[in-house]
C-alpha cells in the first residue's frame, strides 16, 4: 500500500468522468475499483474521498445519479455521464494532454535548452 | 456556469437534510457490502474483510462529514443554526426580549426620524435632470454677508451672459400673489422664473406647457401662469382642461398654460411653490427702475447647471473673473462683490454664510447617534449580565473544543436579531411620529413637511441596526467567550474574573451617564436659547395686534382711489368697538419683504469707491409708532402735516443714529434715498431699536418715512384691540368689503401668529422640542441602565452582603455600601460628560441665540437632574439589599 501513489484531487474528477465514459453507468464502489485497476494498481483511491468528488461533479451537472440494482443484486446508486459531462471529458482530457506535453518538454533534456 | 450551478445546488442542499442523509447512509452501506463481498471472494475472512473495507473507506462517519460539507454550505449552515438558536433563546425569555427590543426601537426610531428630517431638507436630490450638476450661486456684496441678499436682475443677466462654465444660469424670485377666478381668490406662494428656468432643469409639464425660453423675459408680454402640481390638484381637482383658462393675478388678466411635474415643488426647499410666473411679471409688483435697472442687492435667487465634465472649482474661477470685471465696470454698486458656486444640496433653502441648516442637521444626527449609543450600552449590559449567567455553558463548550469565533458569532447573532426586531419596531414608531408631524402645523406658514421614508432612510436605518447589533453584542461576546474554564468550573463567585466583568459593566454605565449628560446639556442650551428668543426685546408690543394686508391696486385702483379707500377704511375700523388704535404701514416686523434702500449723505467717507450703506426702511402713517408701541426716544412723531408737498422727513432708529452720526445729534441731519441725486430727507426723530426681519437678528439700522410722502398701494393695517384680536377679524373683513367689495385681503393674522412663523420662533421651537425629546429619552435609557447594573451587582453580592450582615452590619451601612458604588459611577460619568458637553457645545455655539455655550447654570441643572434621578435608580436596589436575610443568603451558597 505504501508504495502506491495517492490520487490528486484535480485528476480524480477526470478519471471518474473518463471511467463513466468508457464503461457507462456505474456505482461508486465500481468506479473506485475500476480506477485502481486501470492504473495497474499503481494508484490507491481512498474510497472516502470519492463520494464528495462524485457529489461535486453532480452539483456541477457533469454526472447524474439514480438508484439501481448491481450485478450481485444489491441496491446501489448508479452514476452516469450527462451531455455536458461528455463535453467536459473532452475538454479536460485536452487540457491534461497539453499540460502533460508541456511538463514533458521540461523533463526531456536538450529540448528545454532549445 | 457550472460553478454557479453548483452553488445553487449547494444552497438547495440546506434543505431536506434527513432524506439526503438517509440516502448517503444507504449508498455507503452498499459500498461497504460490495467491498466485503469482493474481499471474501478473494479469500479473506469475513471479519477481516469488513475491517479492510472500512479502512479503505476512511471511516463511514468521516466520509459522511466530508460529504455533508460539500453538500451544503457549511458557513451558511452555521449562521442559520445561530439564527435558529438565537430565535429560540429570545422566545424563551420574552421579558428580556421585549425590554431590549423596545430600548433599541427607541434608539433606532429616533435616528430614523432625525435622518428623515435631514433627508427631506438636505439630502433628497431635486427631481430634475442630472441634479448633481446644479449649483446655487450665492452673491456676497460689500457690507452684506453671503446669502443675505439675492442677485439684482442686472447682475443676474450679466452672470448669465458671461459665465461659460455653466450650460445654463437661471433664477427665480420668491413672492406671493393673489390668484382669482370668478368665484374665489387664493393667496399663493409663487416664484417668478427666468425664461430658461424649466428648460435648464430639464422638467416636463404634467399637462399643457411650461414657461420656455421662447417666451422671453420682456416686460409687459402677455402674462402666463404655470401651476404647481399640488395646487392644481387641490384647487382645480387635477382638471386637465384648466389649460388655456384665464385667471387674474393680483387683479390683472393672465392665462394658465400648463402644470409643472408632480415631483417638482420649486427650488426653495421648505416651501411648496403653487405657481410659476415669467420673470417679466415682477414688473407689475415692483416698478421698472427698482427691478430692472438697479444693481447691488436684489431678490433673484440664482442657480447654474455646470457643463458636463466641469468641476465646481473651475466654475468658481470663471465666476471670480466675471465678478472682478463687473466690479471694475460698476464701481459704485458692484465693488467687492463675490459670487460663490455651492452644490445645490448644501445651499438649502438659501446659501447662507454659516451653513446653519447643515450644522443643525449634523448636530441632531450626532444627538440621535448618542441616544442610540445609550440604548446599545443598555442592551450590552443586559446581554453581558445574561452572558455571565451562561458563562458555565460557554466555558464548557470552549473546553469541549468549540471555537471562540463560533461562540462570539453566536452571541452576535443574538444581538443582531434583537437589533433587527428593534429596528423594525423603531421604523414603525418613526412612521407613526412622522404621520403625526404635519398636524403640528403652523398657521399661514406654507411649510412643506415631506419627510417620507425613501431608500436613503431605510439604508440609514439598516446601518443603525447593524451598528446597534455589533456595538451591543461585541463587548459582552468578547468578554464572555474569554471565560477560563478552570476558574468558572471551580465556581468561585469571588474570583478575579468576576471583578473584571464588573468593570466592563461599570465602564459602560459611565459612558452612558456621560452621553446622557451631554444630551441634557444640549437640550438645556436649546431651551435657554428659545427662552432667550421669546423674552427678547422686540422693540414693539406684539400683544393684541391684528395685521391685515390689502392691496387695492390688484383690483385696478389708482393712487387717488387707493388713498381714499384707506382713509375711509381707517375711519370705519377706528369706530369699531374694541379697537384701541389702528394705523397702516408698508410692512410690519416679521412680515414679508421689507424695503431696503441705499442711503447717501454727508456722513459718507471721501472714498468714492465705497458703497453707500444699504438700510431697511418702512413707510408708516402718523399712528403707527403709537399703535405698535414703538417708543420715540427723542424728536417728534410724524403728523398729518408731513404730507406730499411738505419737506421730506424721517425717523431713524438708535442703531442708525449711532452708526451714521457717531457722537452727534442726528436730529436736524439729512440724507438722500436711492441715489446721490435723490431728494433730501431730514431726520426729525429717534425711535427705539427693534427686530424687523427675524426675531434672532442683531439690531440693525432702520428708518421710517411717512406713507404720505412715499406712496405704497399694498399696506398692512395694524389694529390694536382691547379684546383678543381674532375676534375682530370677521368684522374687519366685512368693513373692507363694505367699502370695496372686490379688494383682495392678501393676509390676515395676529402679530402673535406671525411671531410663530418661519421668521419668528418656529426654528427655535422645533430645535428645542427635538433636543428636549432626545434629552428625555436619553435620561430614561441611562437611568434604566444604572438601575440595571446596580441591581445586578446587588444580586451578585447577595452572599457578601449576607456575610456582612451576619457580622453585624446594619441596614444603613449596607445602603451606604451599595449607594457608594452607584455614586462612584455617577461621579465618573458626570465628569466625563461635562468634558464631552463642553467640547461639543463649542461647535454649536453659533446656532444658539443669546446663550453662552458654557452657561454654568445649564451645566449645573443638567448635572443635578441627572445625578438625582440616577441616585434614585441606585436607591431602589440598595433598599432591596438591606432586606437580604443573612441566613438565606449564606445557605444559598
Detailed description of the structure:
The complex is a heterodimer of chains A (114) and B (893). Chain A has helices at 9-23, 28-38, 47-59, 83-107; strands at 5-6, 26-27, 43-44, 63-69, 75-81. With 114 residues, chain A is of the alpha+beta class. The longest helix of chain A is centred in the C-terminal third of the chain and has 25 residues, at 83-107. Helices cover 56% and strands 18% of the residues of chain A. Chain B is an alpha+beta fold and 893 residues long. In chain B, the strands form 3 sheets. A 6-stranded mixed barrel of chain B has the order 2-3-8-5-7-6. In chain B, a hairpin with a 6-residue loop joins strand 17 (670-673) and strand 18 (680-687). In chain B, helix 5 crosses helix 16, helix 26 crosses helix 29 (886-892) and helix 27 packs antiparallel against helix 28. Chain B is elongated, with a radius of gyration of 37 Å. The model of chain B is unreliable at 439-445 and 492-499 (pLDDT under 50). The A-B interface holds A 27-30, 33, 46-49, 51-52, 55-56, 58-62, 70, 72, 74-77, 84, 88 and B 2-3, 5-6, 9-10, 23-24, 26-28, 30-31, 33-35, 37-38, 56-59, 62-63, 66-67, 69-71.
Specify the biggest β-sheet of chain A. 3 strands, antiparallel
Radius of gyration of chain A: 16 Å
The side-by-side strand order for the widest beta sheet of chain A comes to: 2-5-4
Shape call of chain B: elongated
Write down the overall geometry of chain A.
globular
With helices defined by DSSP (H or I, 4 residues minimum), what is the helix count of chain B? 29
Using the CA coordinates, give the radius of gyration of chain B: 37 Å
Structural class of chain A: alpha+beta
* Pair with the biggest interface: A-B, 26 and 29 residues
Strand order of the largest sheet of chain B: 2-3-8-5-7-6
Amino acid at each position: 500500500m505504501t508504495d502506491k501513489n495517492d490520487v490528486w484531487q484535480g485528476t480524480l474528477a477526470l478519471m471518474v468522468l473518463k471511467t463513466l465514459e468508457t464503461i457507462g453507468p456505474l456505482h461508486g464502489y465500481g468506479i473506485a475499483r475500476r480506477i485502481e485497476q486501470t492504473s495497474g494498481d499503481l494508484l490507491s483511491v481512498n474510497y472516502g474521498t470519492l463520494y464528495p468528488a462524485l457529489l461535486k461533479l453532480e452539483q456541477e451537472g457533469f454526472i447524474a445519479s439514480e438508484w439501481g440494482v448491481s450485478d450481485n443484486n444489491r441496491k446501489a446508486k448508479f452514476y452516469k455521464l450527462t451531455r455536458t459531462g461528455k463535453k467536459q471529458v473532452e475538454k479536460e482530457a485536452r487540457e491534461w494532454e497539453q499540460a502533460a506535453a508541456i511538463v514533458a518538454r521540461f523533463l526531456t533534456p536538450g529540448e528545454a535548452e532549445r | 456556469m457550472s460553478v454557479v450551478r453548483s452553488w445553487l445546488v449547494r444552497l438547495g442542499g440546506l434543505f431536506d437534510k434527513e432524506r439526503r442523509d438517509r440516502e448517503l447512509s444507504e449508498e455507503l452501506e452498499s459500498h461497504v457490502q460490495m467491498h466485503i463481498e469482493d474481499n471474501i471472494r478473494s479469500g479473506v475472512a469475513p471479519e477481516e474483510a469488513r475491517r479492510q473495507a472500512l479502512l479503505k473507506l476512511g471511516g463511514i462517519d468521516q466520509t459522511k462529514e466530508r460529504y455533508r460539507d460539500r453538500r451544503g454550505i457549511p458557513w451558511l449552515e452555521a449562521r442559520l443554526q445561530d439564527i435558529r438558536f438565537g430565535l429560540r433563546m429570545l422566545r424563551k425569555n420574552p421579558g428580556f426580549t421585549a425590554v431590549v427590543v423596545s430600548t433599541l426601537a427607541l434608539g433606532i426610531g429616533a435616528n430614523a426620524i432625525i435622518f428623515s428630517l435631514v433627508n427631506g431638507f438636505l439630502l433628497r436630490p431635486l427631481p430634475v435632470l442630472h441634479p448633481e450638476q446644479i449649483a446655487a450661486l450665492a452673491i456676497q456684496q460689500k457690507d452684506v454677508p453671503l446669502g443675505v441678499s439675492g442677485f439684482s436682475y442686472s447682475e443676474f443677466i450679466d452672470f448669465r451672459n458671461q459665465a461659460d462654465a455653466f450650460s445654463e444660469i437661471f433664477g427665480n424670485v420668491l413672492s406671493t400673489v393673489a390668484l382669482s377666478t370668478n368665484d374665489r381668490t387664493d393667496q399663493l406662494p409663487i416664484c417668478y422664473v427666468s425664461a430658461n428656468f424649466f428648460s435648464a432643469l430639464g422638467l416636463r409639464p404634467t399637462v399643457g406647457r411650461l414657461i420656455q425660453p421662447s417666451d422671453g423675459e420682456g416686460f409687459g408680454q402677455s402674462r402666463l401662469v404655470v401651476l404647481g402640481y399640488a395646487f392644481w390638484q387641490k384647487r382645480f381637482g387635477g382638471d386637465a382642461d384648466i389649460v388655456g383658462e384665464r385667471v387674474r393675478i393680483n387683479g390683472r388678466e393672465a392665462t394658465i398654460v400648463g402644470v409643472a411635474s408632480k415631483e417638482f415643488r420649486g427650488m426653495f426647499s421648505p416651501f411648496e411653490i403653487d405657481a410659476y410666473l415669467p420673470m417679466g411679471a415682477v414688473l407689475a409688483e415692483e416698478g421698472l427702475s427698482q427691478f430692472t435697472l438697479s444693481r447691488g442687492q436684489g431678490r433673484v435667487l440664482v442657480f447654474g447647471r455646470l457643463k458636463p465634465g466641469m468641476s465646481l472649482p473651475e466654475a468658481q474661477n470663471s465666476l471670480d473673473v466675471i465678478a472682478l470685471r463687473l466690479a471694475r465696470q460698476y464701481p459704485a454698486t458692484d465693488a467687492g462683490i463675490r459670487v460663490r458656486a455651492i452644490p445645490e444640496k448644501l445651499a438649502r433653502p438659501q446659501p447662507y454664510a454659516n451653513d446653519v441648516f447643515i450644522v443643525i442637521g449634523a448636530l441632531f444626527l450626532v444627538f440621535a447617534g448618542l441616544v442610540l449609543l445609550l440604548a446599545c450600552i443598555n442592551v450590552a449590559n443586559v446581554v453581558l449580565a445574561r452572558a455571565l449567567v451562561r458563562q458555565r455553558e460557554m466555558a464548557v463548550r470552549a473546553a469541549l473544543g468549540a471555537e471562540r469565533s463560533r461562540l462570539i458569532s453566536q452571541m452576535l447573532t443574538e444581538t443582531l436579531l434583537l437589533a433587527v426586531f428593534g429596528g423594525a419596531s423603531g421604523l414603525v414608531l418613526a412612521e407613526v411620529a412622522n404621520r403625526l408631524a404635519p398636524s403640528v402645523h403652523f398657521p399661514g406658514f406654507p411649510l412643506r413637511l415631506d419627510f417620507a421614508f425613501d431608500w436613503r432612510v431605510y439604508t440609514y436605518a439598516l446601518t443603525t441596526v447593524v451598528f446597534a447589533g455589533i456595538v451591543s453584542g461585541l463587548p459582552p461576546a468578547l468578554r464572555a467567550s474569554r471565560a477560563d474554564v478552570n476558574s468558572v468550573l471551580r465556581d468561585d463567585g469571588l474570583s478575579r474574573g468576576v471583578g473584571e466583568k464588573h468593570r466592563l459593566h461599570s465602564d459602560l454605565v459611565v459612558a452612558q451617564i456621560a452621553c446622557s449628560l451631554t444630551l441634557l446639556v444640549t437640550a438645556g442650551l436649546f431651551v435657554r436659547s428659545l427662552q432667550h428668543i421669546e423674552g427678547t426685546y422686540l422693540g414693539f408690543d406684539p400683544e393684541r395686534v391684528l395685521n391685515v394686508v390689502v392691496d387695492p391696486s390688484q383690483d385696478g385702483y389708482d393712487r387717488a382711489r387707493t388713498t381714499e379707500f384707506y382713509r375711509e377704511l381707517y375711519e370705519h375700523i377706528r369706530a369699531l368697538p374694541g379697537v384701541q388704535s389702528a394705523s397702516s404701514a408698508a410692512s410690519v416686523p416679521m412680515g414679508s419683504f421689507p424695503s431696503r434702500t441705499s442711503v447717501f449723505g454727508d456722513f459718507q467717507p471721501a472714498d468714492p469707491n465705497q458703497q453707500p450703506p444699504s438700510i431697511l426702511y418702512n413707510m408708516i402713517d402718523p399712528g403707527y409708532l403709537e399703535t405698535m408701541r414703538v417708543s420715540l426716544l427723542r424728536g417728534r412723531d410724524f403728523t398729518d402735516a408731513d404730507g406730499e408737498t411738505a419737506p421730506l422727513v424721517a425717523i431713524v432708529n438708535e442703531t442708525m443714529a449711532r452708526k451714521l452720526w457717531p457722537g452727534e445729534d442726528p436730529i436736524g441731519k439729512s440724507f438722500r434715498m436711492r441715489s446721490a441725486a435723490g431728494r433730501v430727507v431730514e431726520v426729525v426723530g429717534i425711535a427705539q431699536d427693534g427686530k424687523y426681519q427675524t426675531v434672532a437678528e442683531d439690531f440693525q439700522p432702520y428708518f421710517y418715512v411717512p406713507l404720505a410722502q412715499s406712496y405704497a398701494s399694498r399696506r398692512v393695517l395694524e389694529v390694536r384691540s382691547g379684546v383678543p384680536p381674532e375676534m375682530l377679524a370677521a368684522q374687519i373683513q366685512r368693513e373692507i368689503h363694505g367699502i370695496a367689495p372686490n379688494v383682495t385681503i392678501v393676509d390676515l393674522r395676529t402679530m402673535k401668529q406671525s411671531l410663530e412663523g418661519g421668521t419668528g420662533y418656529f426654528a427655535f421651537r422645533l430645535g428645542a422640542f427635538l433636543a428636549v425629546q432626545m434629552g428625555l429619552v436619553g435620561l430614561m435609557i441611562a437611568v434604566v441602565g444604572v438601575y440595571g447594573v446596580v441591581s445586578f451587582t446587588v444580586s451578585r453580592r447577595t452572599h457578601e452582603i449576607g456575610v456582612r450582615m451576619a457580622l453585624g452590619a446594619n441596614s444603613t451601612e449596607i445602603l451606604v455600601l451599595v449607594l457608594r458604588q452607584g455614586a462612584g459611577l455617577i461621579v465618573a460619568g458626570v465628569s466625563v460628560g461635562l468634558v464631552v458637553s463642553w467640547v461639543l457645545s463649542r461647535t454649536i455655539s453659533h446656532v444658539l441665540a443669546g446663550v453662552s455655550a458654557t452657561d454654568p447654570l445649564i451645566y449645573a441643572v443638567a448635572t443635578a437632574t441627572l445625578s438625582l434621578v440616577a441616585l434614585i435608580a441606585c436607591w431602589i436596589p440598595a433598599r432591596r439589599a438591606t432586606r437580604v436575610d443573612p441566613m438565606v443568603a449564606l445557605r444559598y451558597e
